[in-house]
Amino acid sequence: MNYLETLNENNFTHALNVLASNDPDMEYILNTFGLPPLWLREPGFATLIQIILEQQVSLASAKAVFARLQAKISPITPQKFFQLDHTELKTIGFSRQKAIYGRLLAESIIAGELDLNLLNTMDDEDVRSVLKKLKGIGDWTVDIYLLMALRRPDALPKGDLGLILAIQKVKKLAQRPTPQEIESIAEKWRPWRAVATRLLWHYYLSERSPQSRKNPTSPNVVDSECPEL
């Protein structure tokens, strides 16, 4: 598999079958709860802002703030975002820190220091290196961007609460697994760890509420307590 291969409907189904054949727990989830959503987002500035908003808050809270931002500026571009001052961002619902993070991201793009389009041509670790130079963007934000926006098949957001709780439950662990333990458990899922993550999110949401399967949303922020910085 090419390291810049992206997920699509065809290889997603193939990957799910591979995972099910290699891990009985993946097979159980697939047979019990069916195919997970692909859960994709458009790459770009707006999605990075959305993921920043989702750091360490509930899905409902982040979604509400992002909706107010969309109502204020549409489309959400670095230029339009940077024109909003801290008071306006606070009114929309940004915390002081996240307002700073968003403005620094916008400023870096406007200044030509960051070209998000170039991320499409970089391998996962180079994407991580570039994005983590920005204040407010840590491993979890990069992993979610790799997984959902860049559609990288082997991205693993090992600091994600939904993923942690799903692994703990399906693997019958006494305690929440550490990121290092998740890395070890996920070794057998390579090169499809991003697909395994979606399957485990699907399991987590389905176990929490059957209604979640009818109205799937991005699960990485359900009651999120993801360590970010």
Tell me briefly what this model is.
The protein has about 230 residues and is an all-alpha fold. Helices cover about 55% and strands about 0% of the residues.
Number-wise, the strands total: 0
CATH architecture annotation name of the largest domain: Orthogonal Bundle
CATH class of the largest domain: Mainly Alpha
Molecular shape:
globular
Radius of gyration, rounded? 18 Å
Average pLDDT over all residues: 91
The total of helices stands at: 13
Query: How many strands, which pairing sense, and closed or not: the largest β-sheet?
Result: none
Helix content: 55-70%
Q: What series of H and E elements makes up the topology?
A: HHHHHHHHHHHHH
CATH superfamily of the largest domain: Hypothetical protein, domain 2
- Give the CATH topology of the largest domain: Endonuclease III, domain 1
Terminus-to-terminus distance: 32 Å
Low-confidence parts lasting 5 or more residues at pLDDT below 50?
Answer: 212-229
**Overall domain count:** 2
Task: Look at the helices and sheets and give the structural class.
Answer: mainly alpha
> In percent, how much strand structure appears in the residues?
under 5%
Enzyme class: hydrolase
GO molecular function: alkylated DNA binding; DNA-3-methyladenine glycosylase activity; DNA-7-methylguanine glycosylase activity
Protein name: DNA-3-methyladenine glycosylase II
InterPro entries: Alkylbase_DNA_Glycosylase/TA (IPR051912), DNA_glycosylase (IPR011257), HhH-GPD_domain (IPR003265)
